[in-house]
Amino acid sequence: MVSLNPIRILKNEAEEEKAEVARMSSFIGAIAIGDLVKSTLGPKGMDKILVSAGRNAGQVEVTNDGATILKSIGVDNPAAKILVDMSKVQDDEVGDGTTSVTVLAAELLREAEKLIEQKLHPQIVIAGWRIAVEAAKQALADVSFDHEKNLNEAALRADLENIARTTLSSKILANHKEHFTKLAVDAVLRLKGSGNLKAIQIIKISGGILEESFLDEGFLLNKKIGVHQPKRMENCNILIANTPMDTDKIKVFGSTIKVDSMAKIAELEVAEKEKMKDKVNKILAHKCNVFINRQLIYNYPEQLFADAGVMAIEHADFEGIERLALVMGGEIVSTFDTPSKVKLGHCKVIEEMLIGDESLIRFSGVALGSACTVVVRGATQQIIDEAERSLHDALCVLTATVKEPKVVCGGGMIQKQGHWVPYELKLRDVKRCFLTCKLLLQRQKRKGFLHRIVTGDEKRIHYDNLKCRKLWGSSEMLMAEAVSRAASRTPGKEALATEAFATALRRLPAAVADNAGYDSAELVARLRAHHAQGENTMGLDMENGRVGDMKKLGVTESYVVKRQMLVSAAEAAEMILRVDNILKSAPRRRGPDRRPC
């Protein structure tokens, strides 16, 4: 007789979700994460209040940064965890676009769910998505502009300022973006293309207002100089260490010392002081006049350093001494037996300074000349925490742009009347640029347009009586239109998936409009109409709730951020769509140890 009871293969602790159930679970988790952060998207996005539980119960954080929100919440859904990890990677790689990449991945899966309901196989959907990604990447690359070869320093700075303004427009610093744009661009330009963000220190000091934040060309350490130490030192040779400066502890569990008189205790204290004195003498043998230690420096060694005229700075935490070693050109040491092999750090002046009610130590003339410090002021801890996150995002975007100097949505150069403008072009780019300028001329009712192409390695275009620049509008809408054109050329069912990708891209500007309280359906429809007519300079003007000319608004974004957002969202959505089984099981338990002792 055949039994109708199901045959269980997995152990009791294991769970399994199959086929449609697994796919539905993944869709629900990913879409929920996207909807969670969607309201923070855009220059008028909303903020979230994060209240900690457990050990840090009651701690409040106010932010609209997607990565901060997602890493602060606990998720149990596997697909949701994939999007959370993707947002962290976006934050680590380029600093911005963490919300956009999450929302785009969620919208792709929302469209995929509809296609699956229409009996399209997931592999067909993935094939269509891959066509869409290639079309979108190509469209983005076509309108991007590499300003490294063609722009002077002033124009490069103008481009970086536009990028910083765009990044800060959706942050708490939006009302002070001009001030913080200057701070961020000044700090990044000091790096001189190295892209080493560790050379930029951000210090948060409560009190004052946001506009009192400033850039210091030295390196600031939020610590105090020891008691009776010199408060100013010039031509500093700095020994950076991570060593205990209290007593040498005997690392024997349960060890005790018995004495029969107070004299013996005094002898022990003298012996301990002699050990510490020998250690201080070894440190002084390095010919340093400044000693910075990660750990505490107790009273007796501090007094010995003061007597020797050496400035001692204690409790410079791990991140502090790591950054100090970088900017001072020294190395962190723990033993002091070989002074000749130790590399000391150097700077011109070390002095104490007062900001608000806090004393800080300022290092001027450091070995790493590009090092600097941004001091962020604010009324409350929540404000300065969010301001620090916003500024860090802007610094990351600017650094990524300097490393790969391509920009979209405003990238290009202003072309002065009657001047030759170098620009490397393919033939199709020449035609597109010609047609775009012709449309501009017709719209602005200007005459006297002529163009000329010089063949050879360096192609040039000359415009007379025309002041314009190569500038494109909403990059998401531009990519969506390119994907739609690719879908119209794609045979078979893959075209449905390709068009669905374009729909997901259009949801991003729609979400931005919704968050600002505008009619997204009308605005996106008007924007599509402008792009269909070749007016690629048009985008969403969120200040006035209409379609505006991005050239006049000066909206510029980093090509690296947009490309990373597109690729990461597509890869994460594809990974989730491939899933047809979810297995949950506890780790294998270790068996009892039956070996003899």
UniProtKB/TrEMBL annotation:
<dbReference type="InterPro" id="IPR002194">
    <property type="entry name" value="Chaperonin_TCP-1_CS"/>
</dbReference>
<keyword id="KW-0963">Cytoplasm</keyword>
<keyword id="KW-0067">ATP-binding</keyword>
<dbReference type="Pfam" id="PF00118">
    <property type="entry name" value="Cpn60_TCP1"/>
</dbReference>
<dbReference type="InterPro" id="IPR012716">
    <property type="entry name" value="Chap_CCT_beta"/>
</dbReference>
<keyword id="KW-0547">Nucleotide-binding</keyword>
<keyword id="KW-0143">Chaperone</keyword>
<dbReference type="InterPro" id="IPR027413">
    <property type="entry name" value="GROEL-like_equatorial_sf"/>
</dbReference>
<dbReference type="GO" id="GO:0016887">
    <property type="term" value="F:ATP hydrolysis activity"/>
</dbReference>
<comment type="function">
    <text>Molecular chaperone; assists the folding of proteins upon ATP hydrolysis. Known to play a role, in vitro, in the folding of actin and tubulin.</text>
</comment>
<dbReference type="GO" id="GO:0005524">
    <property type="term" value="F:ATP binding"/>
</dbReference>
<protein>
    <recommendedName>
        <fullName>T-complex protein 1 subunit beta</fullName>
    </recommendedName>
</protein>
<comment type="subunit">
    <text>Heterooligomeric complex of about 850 to 900 kDa that forms two stacked rings, 12 to 16 nm in diameter.</text>
</comment>
<dbReference type="InterPro" id="IPR027410">
    <property type="entry name" value="TCP-1-like_intermed_sf"/>
</dbReference>
<dbReference type="InterPro" id="IPR002423">
    <property type="entry name" value="Cpn60/GroEL/TCP-1"/>
</dbReference>
<dbReference type="InterPro" id="IPR027409">
    <property type="entry name" value="GroEL-like_apical_dom_sf"/>
</dbReference>
<dbReference type="GO" id="GO:0051082">
    <property type="term" value="F:unfolded protein binding"/>
</dbReference>
<dbReference type="GO" id="GO:0140662">
    <property type="term" value="F:ATP-dependent protein folding chaperone"/>
</dbReference>
<dbReference type="GO" id="GO:0005832">
    <property type="term" value="C:chaperonin-containing T-complex"/>
</dbReference>
<comment type="similarity">
    <text>Belongs to the TCP-1 chaperonin family.</text>
</comment>
<dbReference type="InterPro" id="IPR017998">
    <property type="entry name" value="Chaperone_TCP-1"/>
</dbReference>
